[in-house]
Design goal:
263 residues, two-stranded antiparallel sheet, 2 strands, 2% strand, binds fe (ii) ion
Length: 263
């Protein structure tokens, strides 16, 4: 049988080794926690590191490019139409109803701005305009003048119909831009390395071109909805026959959008 001091020494060794294990475990944990921190820091550094100038974006697919061209073509035609509708309304109503003059002028000015913006985009992106541009001009001016001749309420009902359709149309475009342009690859400009979305700050994950287009469309959508509110405030619903008038104009607008996207 082993002497008692043997078991005492054995016991001492056991306690020491357990303490050592604990120490190593703690150190191990500390080092793995340190490496975890390092990974987090690295990610944070990577996220900070990238901005618009040191990344490059992969090319869009053919369908994405075609969609953007269609957006510019149809929106340019639509804003041209809106510009001419207000031109027609202003021509008939401004002198007859002085209190409406600044209201119509404000909405018309915004449409001129929308129209000019899409004209510029069309030139920059070399998108061919709708082939039916002369028809859009004449048709829109005709709608503006004829509704205004029926009465100021009918002109406002026309604005309600047009802005309802255009507001919905812009929202539809925004949905596609948010959902169908997330797969465009982003690369480190220097190394050419493909970057993960998680490593990029949010505003760098999509190209400035797409970001600007989205913010432009949402700004214009808000302006159109403001025009809709203005028209309701100025007795659009008192137009007779309100429903027939607005539904027919909505139908015409939807038809024009469908055509301008294609022709
Ligand atoms: Fe507009
Ligand atoms: Fe508008």
């Amino acid at each position: 049988m082993a002497p008692a001091w043997h078991s005492m020494i054995y016991h001492e060794i056991l306690i020491h080794s357990q303490a050592m294990d604990k120490l190593l475990l703690r150190r191990g944990f500390a080092s793995s926690s340190r490496s975890l921190h390092k990974t987090v820091d690295k990610k944070a550094a990577a996220a900070k590191k990238y901005h618009g100038d040191n990344v490059k974006y992969g090319s869009l697919s053919r369908a994405q490019r075609a969609f953007l061209d269609r957006v510019v073509r149809v929106d340019q035609a639509g804003e041209l139409g809106a510009d001419y509708i207000y031109f027609g309304q202003y021509t008939v109503l401004a002198s007859k109803y002085p209190h409406l003059k600044p209201v119509l002028q404000h909405m018309w000015d915004q449409e001129i701005h929308h129209h000019n913006t899409f004209n510029k985009l069309q030139t920059e992106r070399r998108v061919r305009p709708s082939l039916l541009t002369p028809l859009w001009k004449a048709g829109a001016f005709g709608i503006g003048v004829s509704t205004a001749l029926i009465g100021k309420e009918a002109a406002m009902a026309c604005t309600v119909a047009v802005e309802t359709v255009i507001g919905g149309h812009y929202n539809q475009q925004l949905r596609v831009l948010m959902n169908q342009f997330n797969d465009v690859p982003v690369y480190d400009k220097e190394t050419g390395e493909k970057l993960k979305e998680a490593d990029l700050p949010r505003d760098v994950a999509t190209s400035s071109e797409l970001r600007e287009l989205k913010s432009l469309i949402s700004q214009f959508r808000d302006d159109e909805l403001e025009h809709l509110d203005t028209a309701i405030e100025h007795d659009a619903e008192k137009a007779v026959p309100y429903l027939l008038l607005t539904e027919v104009i909505k139908l015409v607008c939807r038809g024009a959008i469908w055509t301008a996207e294609r022709v």
